[in-house]
Amino acid sequence: MHDKVKIGLMPNRREVFNINTAREEYDIIMPIIHAQMKDYVEWVEIDDICEQGMACHIDDIDKVVAKFRAADIDAIFSPFCDFGEESVVAGVAKQFMLPTLIWGTRDKVSTYEHREKETQCGIFAATKVLRNYGVTFSYIWNCEADSPDFVNGFEKFVRVVNVMKNLRNANIASIGDRPSGFYSVIHNQLQLIKNFNISVKPIGLAQIGAETQRIVDENSQELQDYVKDFSSRIDLSEVEDPDFATRVCAGVLAIEGLMKKNHCRAAGFDCGGVGRAVGISATGCVIEGELADRGLPTGCEMDIWGGISMLILKSAALGEDAPLLADWTYRHPTNDNGELIWHGGPFAYSLADKDKNPMIKARKFRNRAFYEPHWELKQGHMSMLRMDELDGEYYVFLADADTIEGPDTTATYVWIEAKPSWKAWEEKLMFGPFIHHVGGIYGEYNEVFEEVIRYLNDSRRGVKVHLITPTTPGPKSL
After folding, report:
1. What was the pLDDT predicted at 205?
2. In this structure, what are the phi and psi dihedrals at residue 330, rounded to the nearest 5 degrees?
């Protein structure tokens, strides 16, 4: 199931230009706009309230704002059908402060005697007014509507909008307790509320245990179907506990229900505590992987910023792929730029290399027997992201990597190759301020994340988000 965004579509024109020329442009571009990402975008349009479907007059501002507000839009797209009306575009956008996309096509006629639209000129004027009003905007360069640049630029905008939508007023569940030794995952809840309007909602282990037991006792058709599916895709041949699959699936349903009840989109997760609460001889890592595949990413070891990082990754993929949160673990034995990204079982099953028999293994650690998910992930290209905080400012590490082959190891893992070098990555991560956790997702989304960071940098509230990449200046400049 994928995400969907609601965009207020506000074509605009300028009154001193010929309305028929603007309408001709409108008739050309609107079918192309409507054809973009039809399964992911719901349009809120103004053709019923503005002359010829284009905002033009000061009086249009209140009408458009009222319609967009009633529809609870996630973003605004204002294509220019001629020079455009900067006062209307900015007048509407400033009342929402949502992601706003500006674009217009190349004028086809330009002679000494005849210039029909002057679209590019008007866009320069409008974007200056948007800046004056403190509106952060996105922009597709002056290109044709049926060009790859427009198609790609619009898709990027939709992904940016979905990230901002999912971060806006987000609740992040705090599931269980922070492991006592993990000071690295401490976060500032007050600053999260103040700067991003993100709230942390506690969900207790006792609640999870009670809800899990209720689901087990009820033994609904939903649970039975889930257990059958879980057991069919993961090798459980080493699992001797006959109730393991039932309790894992009941735990997933319990936590999913509690997160949805609290309107939570992601979580920090007490892996050991959850395992005990649901009654399995394992950590809750296997439950984390299942939740990720059900659209609810969780950060191991009560890593709230890890959960937020995963939410950003999931949203950029429009909910169509599961993110992961991994440890930076150790370097490849023969490839100086290779690194193992690993964790004790929370990577989603959908990401596993199915040819390598994903299974739950019986293991022992310090004379304690337990069960652990074991699968290597598929090969591919990954976008890597970690957001964190220090002294009231925020930092995002952003890089991409290709997976590579490497030695087999335990739990859930994959090897990656850092570019331009692991040394460049390690230095940025070490001075960060980042921890041993990093988020990842298959695909290329770094341009989306760069745009998201522009929107998160809010001068009105004094929020500062620093972008850190392997090629940014060294740690002395941070």
Report:
1. 97
2. -160, 165
Residues of the chain where predicted confidence (pLDDT) is lower than 70: 1, 109-115, 459, 474-478
CA distance 163 to 161: 5
Contact 185, 306 (CB under 8 A): yes
In this structure, are residues 247 and 279 in contact, taking their beta carbons and an 8 Å threshold?
yes
| Beta-carbon contacts of residue 314 (< 8 Å; ≥ 6 apart) | 166, 266, 295, 297, 321, 322, 323, 441
Q: What is the pLDDT of residue 477?
A: 47
Nearest Cα to Cα of residue 347 among 285, 404, 304: 285
Nearest CA-CA partner of 326 in 354, 345, 350: 345
| Strands laid side by side in the 100-104 sheet | 41-45, 5-9, 75-80, 100-104, 137-139
Taking CA atoms, 351 is separated from 321, 322, 366, 386, 441, in Å, by 9, 7, 30, 19, 9
pLDDT digits (tens, 9 = 90+) for 384-415: 999 999 999 999 999 999 999 999 999 999 99
What is the rounded end-to-end Cα distance, in angstroms, of the chain? 40
According to the model, what pLDDT value does residue 111 have? 56
Q: Are the beta carbons of 329 and 13 closer than 8 angstroms?
A: no
* Domain positions in the chain: 5-167, 171-477
Query: Which tens digits make up the pLDDT trace of 276-335?
Result: 999 999 999 999 999 999 999 999 999 999 999 999 999 999 999 999 999 999 999 999
Cα–Cα dist 292/321, whole Å: 9
Question: At the top level of CATH, which class does the domain 171-477 belong to?
Answer: alpha beta
Q: In the numeric block, which tokens belong to residue 118?
A: 């002057």
CATH of 5-167, one of 3.40.50.1070, 3.30.930.10, 3.40.50.720, 3.90.25.10: 3.40.50.1070
Tell me which residue of 387, 406, 411 sits closest to 397, measured CA to CA. 387
Q: pLDDT per residue over 55-92, tens digit each? A: 999 999 999 999 999 999 999 999 999 999 999 999 99
